[in-house]
Design brief:
By secondary structure, the protein is mostly helical. Helix content is 93%, strand content 0%.
């Protein structure tokens, strides 16, 4: 009787621990997925700043004041690195 009860308790403990581990793994996977999405969004924003910088430089031509004004895009892209 006691052997059977202790065996049932051991099985219950194992199932309980495996259920908790599954939740931890799912939470870790969800967090990792969110981190990847955030990194992707930052990369897209960085590319947008670089594109804006290139467009700005192309429009500025030889006007040094406008070229200097374009640096804000480049600095913004560098800040996201």
């Amino acid at each position: 009787m006691y052997k059977r009860l202790s065996a049932i308790l051991c099985v219950f403990a194992i199932f309980s621990m495996s259920a908790c581990t599954g939740v931890s793994v799912r939470n870790a996977a969800r967090s990792q997925s969110q981190a990847y999405k955030a990194q992707g969004a930052v990369a897209e924003q960085r590319l947008e700043f670089v594109k804006n910088y290139q467009d700005c430089i192309a429009k500025a031509g030889e006007n040094l004041q406008q070229v200097e004004a374009c640096d804000v895009y480049l600095k913004s892209a560098e800040a996201l690195s």
